[in-house]
Give the backbone structure.
Amino acid sequence: MSRRGPGGPRRGGPGRRPAPLPPRAEAKPAPAPDGSCNALCSYFKCLNNALVVVRRPSHGRMQRTAYCRWIGDECIAGSCQYASCNLKALLPDGGCLYVKEKRVERPEKTLEEIEAELKREEAEMSKIERLMRRRGYEAEEELL
């Protein structure tokens, strides 16, 4: 048996090198559906170093859960005093800044749009009143 000399081939045959790994996809913030901070987000950090991600059965299948070793229960994420975000996106109320930025605020209606909507509603009410009179119902002025 010959010994492998310096610079000789290792496992896999002569000159074989492992294939390079594919590039990793860039991580994105993963807040909870209600917009609060999620302990399973890749940017969430526990300043107490007590966060552990465990797999627990839930409704017949395994599900990842954030577990706090310090309190011995599930992590409460953004409402914990030791919660932090690597992207500085954790808000004081426990929400995620990236979710709040994505929400598009509806522009306020202009005066012309409000007046047009009011006219449409009045026309619709007058049609209903006419139909009611045909059927024999009298509309009370107090209710209108």
Summary: The beta strands are 44-46, 51-58, 61-68, 73-74, 83-85. Residues 111-135 form the longest helix (25 residues). Helices lie at 97-102, 111-135. The mean pLDDT is 82.
